[in-house]
Design a protein that fits this description.
Elements (H helix, E strand, L loop, with lengths): L2 H42 L2 H54 L6 H17 L9 H10 L12 H4 L7 H8 L1 H12 L6 H13 L20 H16 L10 H10 L7 H12 L5
Helix pairs in contact: 1-2, 3-4, 3-9, 3-11, 4-8, 7-8, 8-9, 9-10
Length: 285
């Protein structure tokens, strides 16, 4: 299991552990009262104390358990409101950035859907059991920030109608590092630290290649964060089937063929197989 997978599994375990801890604390109070009752009866043979202690234990259980349920719901509801607000602000930023790029209308929404499709497909395998609905949603919500660094790319490069020169391409490639830096400076204090980590990894590493020939760092294989390997497939597929100022859209069959050709070189081979299997059964993508 790579580091990203372990972190996601641990993240899920922490949430469950927190809720279980609250419940256990409530039950401990009830248990302590019952033990006190037993001690009173067997040591002091005090039947009256036994009745009183058991009564307190029952009353505590009646009040504490509903209080736990109510508190847990309040915490969950408040947390979800904060997350929803953050997601709305982040998605708005991503939409504004996309409007600068005349050639990629709808790209962030489509790639987010493709990311979700692939993650759901992966989650059906035991190896990816850590991809719970909550973790899938987290990665999908971070996907729109993959090209956030393009906000710092000059218009004459970003919207050039023809092929980029070598120098211009080097400028364009900087968007990965720009994006990671913007995320580091702007959303590092979001409530959900795991979301920040995923968004950062996607922005910085989604142009890395499985064979190590990508950018900006040249890492390879499972050194590339899982979420970035997923984003790479979604990003390239959508670019292939969508019109650009420099090309017409490829038919779906041609796009799948190109994705297959990148298996094991540009893309993670296992994720490529899952992606092709998922996308081949879809008529809306």
């Amino acid at each position: 299991m790579d580091a990203q997978s372990k972190e996601m599994r641990d993240d899920t375990n922490i949430v469950y552990g927190f809720k279980l801890g609250l419940l256990v604390s409530c039950l401990k109070i009830v248990a302590m009262l019952l033990v006190s009752a037993a001690i009173s009866y067997f040591v002091f043979c005090d039947y009256g104390s036994l009745v009183v202690s058991v009564g307190f234990a029952v009353i505590s259980a009646v009040f504490l358990i509903p209080m736990f349920v109510s508190y847990e719901k309040q915490v969950t509801s408040q947390g979800q409101r904060i997350v929803n607000l953050q997601q709305h602000m982040i998605r708005t930023i991503a939409d504004v950035i996309e409007e600068r790029d005349a050639s990629t209308g709808g790209h962030i929404a489509r790639t987010a859907d493709l990311v979700e499709m692939l993650l759901v497909g992966m989650s059906k395998l035991p190896k990816y059991s850590f991809l719970t609905p909550a973790n899938i949603e987290k990665i999908k919500n971070a996907a729109p920030l993959h090209d956030v660094g393009k906000i710092k790319i000059p218009d004459n490069v970003l919207n050039k109608p023809g092929k980029l020169t070598v120098v211009e391409y080097e400028v364009m490639k900087k968007h990965s590092e720009f994006g990671a830096d913007l995320i580091l400076r702007s959303i590092k204090n979001v409530e959900d630290k795991k979301y920040f980590s995923i968004a950062y990894n996607i922005a910085l590493f989604h142009h890395e290649r499985y064979d190590g020939k990508g950018y900006p760092t040249g890492i390879s294989g499972e050194q590339i964060p899982l979420e970035a390997r997923v984003m790479a497939l979604a990003d390239v597929y959508d670019a292939l089937v969508s019109p650009r100022v420099y090309k017409e859209p490829f038919p779906k069959s041609k796009a799948i063929e190109i994705i297959k050709e990148g298996r094991g070189t540009q893309f993670d081979p296992e994720l490529t197989d899952i992606f092709i299997n998922c996308i081949s059964s879809r008529t809306d993508m």
